[in-house]
Please model this.
Amino acid sequence: MWGGRFADGPAAIMQQINASIDFDRRLYAQDIRGSQAHCRMLAAQGILSPADADAIVAGLDAVRAEIEAGTFPFSVAFEDIHMNVENRLSELIGEPAGRLHTARSRNDQVATDFRLWVRDAIDGMGQALTGLQAALIARAEEHAATVMPGFTHLQAAQPVTFGHHLLAYVEMIGRDRGRLADARRRLNECPLGSAALAGTSFPIDRAHTAAALGFERPMANSLDGVSDRDFALEFMSAAAICAVHLSRLAEELVVWTSAQFRFVRLSDAFTTGSSIMPQKRNPDAAELVRAKTGRVIGDLAALLIVMKGLPLAYSKDMQDDKEPVFEVADTMELSIAAMTGMIGDMTVNTQVMAAAAGAGFTTATDIADWCVRELKTPFRQAHHVAGRLVKLAEDQGCGLEDLSLAEMQTIEPRLTESARAVLSVASSVASRTSFGGTAPSRVKDAVAAARRRWLEGAQP
Ligand code: ARG
Model:
C-alpha cells in the first residue's frame, strides 16, 4: 500500500508486532459500512463518478458476503482489516477500488469503525442488563415478604425482606445502564473526514457520512477525531463499575449457597460437583463472575495506560485499544448472562432465611424505637435500654422475644406488652415503611415502580 517509497518488505518480527488483523477482523461489518457511506458521499459530492461508486458499493457487499461465508482470504501481509478489505476489493473490482481511499485515511477510518463497534457493544450490554433487571424484579416480587437478616459488617443487623435486597441490585444496574447511555451520547459523533489528522482539501460533506452512520453530527476537530479513545475508556469504565456490582451479587450467592448459610440453592444447571467430595455443589458460575471483574478492571487500566501521555494526533499505540475493549464486551456478555441465569434459577430457602432473620438480636433497634415513640425517651438513652435487654437475653441464652415482660421490666419498668410485640421479625420489617424501606408493602410498590422505570422506560 505504500510501495512507492519502500524498496524492502517488513521483517517477519515487524509483521508480527505490527499486524492487527487477527483481532481487528471483528470490525469488518463496521469497516464496510463506513466505507460504503464514505463512497456514497464522495459520489454525491462529485468526487467519484456514479459508476465507480456503484462498483465499490457492490464490491464491498461481495467482500462482506465472503467474510460471513468464511471464505475471505485474510492475510497478515495486509496488516489490518482496513487493508485486507481494500485489497480484496481491488481483486474483485479492479481500478475503482483504488479511488475509495480518496479524502480519508486509516486514522479516521479506524476511529469511525471502532466508535460504531463500541456503540453496538453499549447497546448490547444495555439490553443484557435490562434482562438481568427483569429477572431480579420477578424474584423480588415473589419474595416481597420473605424475611432474611440484613447485614452490616457481615454481622446480622436488622431483618430485611429478600425482595428489598434484590431490588438494591436493580437500582445499581439501573445506574450502570445510565452510565452506558451517557457514554453513548458523547460517543455518538463521527470522526470520518478527519482524514489523517488535518482534514482534507476535497469538498467532502461530513454531515452526510455522519447521518448515514447514525451519528448525531461530525466531530468538530480533526486532530481530536483521530486521536482520542475516551469513548472506549468510558465504555470500559461503565463496564468496570458494573462488573464490581456483579461481583458483589456473585459473592452473596457464594455465601448464601454455603452449608453454613443455606439461604439459597443453585440448580444443577449452575453448579458443579466435586470429583472427590460427593456432598459438594460448588457455585462455580458465581465464583467466575466474581473473578472476571478482575479482567474488566485490568482492561480498563491497560487502555488508560496506553493513552496516557500520547501526543496528538494518531500514534500506533492506539492499535492496542481493541483487544481490551473486545475482552470487556465479551466478558460482560458472559457474566451478565450467567448472573441472569442464576437469579432466575435459584431456589430460595425461606424457612432458613426466616430463622436466621431473628437470630443475633436483630430486633434490638425496634425496642429502642418503641421507647422513643411511647416513652419519649431520648434515642441515645433508649439505645442503652435495648443494649441492656440484649445483654440479659445473651446471659440467659435466649432471644429477645423469649424474655418475659417481668424480666424486661427489671431494666425499664415502663415497658409493656406492646413493647414485646415489636420484637418479632415480622413486625420489625412491616414497620419499616419509610420511602425506600424494607416493609413488604413498600417492596410491592417498589417492584411496580422498578418495572415502570427500568423495564418500561418511564421517568422516575
Ligand atoms: N490498524 C490501525 C489501528 O488499529 C489502523 C490505523 C493505522 N494508521 C496508521 N497511520 N498506521 O490503529
Notes: The pocket of arginine is lined by residues 20, 24, 80, 106-107, 110, 314, 316, 318-319 (CB under 6 Å). Residues 12 and 18 are 10 Å apart (CA to CA). The chain has a mean pLDDT of 96. The longest strand covers residues 155-161.
